[in-house]
Amino acid sequence: MNPLTNWDWGFIPSTLLVWKLDCLRTLWKFCLQSQKWTSNLYSKASKTGFESEDLVKSVEVLKERLKFLKNFVGFVTQHGVEDGQLGPLFVHTEFITANAARLSFTWNSDPSSTSNHITDLLHKIIPTESQVHETCVLALITSKASRHPYRDSDEPMLRDFLESLLCNIWSILKSCTFRMISFKFQLQILWEGFRYLRTIFKEKPKKFDEKVRDLTGLVLCDAGLHLFSLSLNATNDGFIREMDLVSPDLLENINLIKLTVAGECPETSPFNFPRTNALGFIDFLLKYMTDLTSSEASLAALANHPVQTIQKDLGFLRSFLGKIVEMRNGDEELQAVWDRVVEVAYTVEFLIDSVLVGDILDSCSLSFDSIVEEIESIKSEASKIFDSKRLDVKQKEVTKRLNQIPTQGSKPINNDVVVGFEDEATSIINRLTRGSRHVQIVPIVGMPGLGKTALAKKVYNDSSIMSYFYTRAWCTVSQVYVVKNLLLEILTCIESKHSERIFEMSEEDLAAEVKKRLLRTRYLIVFDDVWDMEVWNRLEASFPNDGNGSRVIMTSRLRDVVPQDNLHQEPHYLRQLTHDESWNLLKEKLCPGKDLLPSELSELRTQIVEMCQGLPLTIVILAGILANMDPSGWKGEVQSLSSRNVSSTEQCTTTLELSYKHLPDNLKPCFLYFGGFPEDHEHTGKRLIWLWVTEGFVQATDLKSAEDVANDYMMDLINRSLVMVSKHRSIGGVKTCCIHDLLHEFCVEKAKEENFLQLVRGYDELYTLNVPRYLRRLCINSTTKDFNDSRLAFPTVRCLLFFVHGTRELYPWFGLSFNFHLFKLLRVLDLSQINLKDTFPREIELLVHLRYLAILGDVYIPSSIANLQNLETFLASSRSLPDTVWNLKKLRHLVWIGQFSFGGFRLPTENLDKSPQLCNLDTLSRVRIFSWENRDKIFKKFPNIRKLKCELTAPHHPAKEKSDNILALDFSSRLESLSLRVPTGFGKPYPVEFHLSLTVRKLTLSGFCLPWSKISAVANLPNLEALKLLREAFVGETWDLEAEEFPELRFLKLASLDIVKWTAIECENSFPRLQKLVLEKCCNLEEIPSSMGNVSPLETIEVSDCPNSANSVNEIQEEQISMGNTGFKVITSSRRRRS
């Protein structure tokens, strides 16, 4: 029985009050103990054998509610509330404390029954019984009316209660269904205001005086009263009534606090929408509104709203903006109109998407009717401006500029060129190869952008270093690093392929593994971008000192990154480039391979080298600017910079700003998007392009797909020296890319300034985050726990990227699954760095606007994934897909992103004849086809696919007909890249005849065990440019080319094959266009066709672990050199350990 019943409230002495407070302290100890439950819960649950995720969530909720009860009593008892007024509340507290103690005992004795007890306690812990609720409300009213001022010593109590109220607002946002936009916005304003107050408590500005403390106490009282009201007035089905709108006085007092401390806190612009590429966004919106007309469901939802009228008027205003795009700079009147149009466009998009997810437009200030009125007002204003300024109606439209094709094609400026520093490199090499036989650290120190990493790479890839050190490894540290990840990075350099267990090892085991791999071998390890000596302190034990001359290089902006005991010589302080080196670097970047320079450039030599003052980054950026200008404008551009000290950090920022200013508007969002990723992040080119397309930065043209246009954008950014290529694809293009740290920081700050996106790093930034109300993109680099604890809720966010900061947690998805509905307008959701294990967040199914979804883990994908009818890119690591995947009509990229070389999707085969085709699918990567009988039916589901990567299993029964052995891969007239793999161990020829599409440009085969005579099926493909024959693709000791084959092939790789002789006795003209040959782990290979020596385009032969092919390769090298191909290179390496 509840002890509140029949209690005589008149007999509560003050001594009893003290005892009650002791109970409260006991209760808080229980709250702290519950945190230990959370960390140990899964290990206990695994022993008892029952599902525990719901129990963990319940414990977390219980902890927060207990904390609220404790903080509430602390708040009201310290400010004007008499002891006797709290009788019912203290009895309630005693009741809760007793139940909490019972619950703790129950967990220790019978954990399987704990869940129901927690649920019961959760229902009772928030006061809802009339007497207790009335006591709480009266206590808050009394506290509000009190004239006692709040002291400095009260600030912890204010902060704690504020935190509890913020938690309760968050709970309401999560647990209630909001369909009225006005209430949602007011509650969001309250939530943002409380987060702002929390920031004030943390930063303690000088103006946070007694007046602000008293005003804060008043706000907390009003908010507490409002939340108690909500807890009673919420209906049983979770909907909030219209009467429960947030008090205007409460919001006004929050704003008053903001104004009081505004002198020390950052101001926010009244224009909260993104400023970047406004015309590109309006074009995207207009196309989006047009596409809605093809959806019956969308038309029905929007039937009562004047969407078509608004679309027509927006088209008119888009045309007007195109005419004033250049004139608005410096013209406040034109800029004001511009901002109004952009704000209307973003508001229209928000209203349309809100209606499509079922929200009710109940606010007169935020409705389609108000938009129509605003548009009419803008049109009237625009007409007046047009007449008064007499704008030229034939002014060039920016649309043409947006669709402009880069002038320099797709070949980027060579980002790998290192000019100068010859003496620096020689000095470093001498320190690495001479001197003491003990392990030594060689620090390379210098200012940002001076070329520390470039010099380290030059030394690292020097032929003398490659031959001297048997093992080399490179890892990038940065300001935020995880030791476990550094160890994995080192191991990956030592051995590129690992078993699955390596990723499950602890940090200690990884450290031991690194040491094991480095024992008795001379090694060179590079730690790039080091910020403190703690890195070496934690990793030193992993690097054995065998007295064989091993070395470690560290690059850093700081001098003191190496402990003095380990520093045998002074750090190598990197100098600036000389004038001649600066000039040579500019020439190589701006006019690669040219001896005769444009006269316009030669005339500017003195000005340029003096202006850049030996800073490579500035030279590279300047080259990027000049490369995209007419030479006639070079002089004016250089003179505008000549008076600035570009070597300083401030000047670097100015130079970066200038580079950004010169970007076409269509490239600016693509460039700023790099600011949404962690520092030193290596971007996969394809995924970055898919994100740009999904975000609407890129539009398809009549001749090119959106992805192809985006690739042009990327190459343009590379040509401007803003993006660096990390890895090239075999036949050109970008496999991975990155940007310099200075450029990254610039993107972070500029993106924030323009309300484009917000990158939040670590809990401190999450805790104090103050962002525009219409934040569009939120990028988190933190732990999932910090993300949950920060209680972020931005209903307008369209993009959420999450990057794990730290090692993967055992169950890192906890708490995330029930938060996604707070971001229900999301178009982009990337959780690919969070291992969800086997749990699919079901709220994702409600994100009907999603176009891009990336999730990691062996997640069971539910059939309701078909609700995501707008999904275009789906990246996952699940083993199977539901049969409803065939209903995702807009799907363009379906990619398996598991961590290992094996694995892939298993496509559904039920009702294939009745299932629709995925006509828009462009990329299908890593699919496993188990059904031999259904393989042709599956392939025909993708009539327009361009890239296919799949694994084939062997048939269970011999083919009845010869035609059953034909692998028909000519089902798509657009197929360009094809990768086919049979699992290792099949051991006999795969019973198949290839029928390949003539459009294939890149082909990878593995595991088929076919005789070399079967290679004719691919040899004469007219468009084949890259061929990779991997483990057991073909078997047999001799491959004899019998005819003129591979007419267009530019790249050939042979890896892990049993071939001994590769001849071309009857075919001297094979591979006429071959540029690069890669031989890897063909241990028995002795002979390579001598005709390779006559292939004039051949540039490189890479040989790794092919010990018997040296003579044949040397003969080819001699023949190439005799033909005058002085640039021909042979690169040899070995992954084998040496002692």
Task: Summarize the entry for a quick read.
Its main location: cytoplasm. It is found in: Cytoplasm; Membrane. Helix content is 42%, strand content 13%.
How would you sum up this structure, described in words?
- The structure is a single chain.
- Helix 21 links the parallel strand 3 and strand 4 (about 550-555).
- The termini are far apart.
- This protein is an alpha/beta fold.
- The chain has a 17-stranded parallel beta sheet that branches.
- The chain has 36 helices and 31 strands.
- Helices cover about 40% and strands about 15% of the residues.
- Helix 29 packs across helix 30.
- The protein has seven domains: about 15-145; about 150-265; about 280-385, no CATH class; about 420-575, P-loop containing nucleotide triphosphate hydrolases (Rossmann fold), CATH 3.40.50; about 575-655, Orthogonal Bundle (Helicase, Ruva Protein, domain 3), CATH 1.10.8; about 665-755, Orthogonal Bundle (Arc Repressor Mutant, subunit A); about 965-1139, Alpha-Beta Horseshoe (Leucine-rich repeat, LRR (right-handed beta-alpha superhelix)).
- Its main location: cytoplasm.
- Belongs to the disease resistance NB-LRR family.
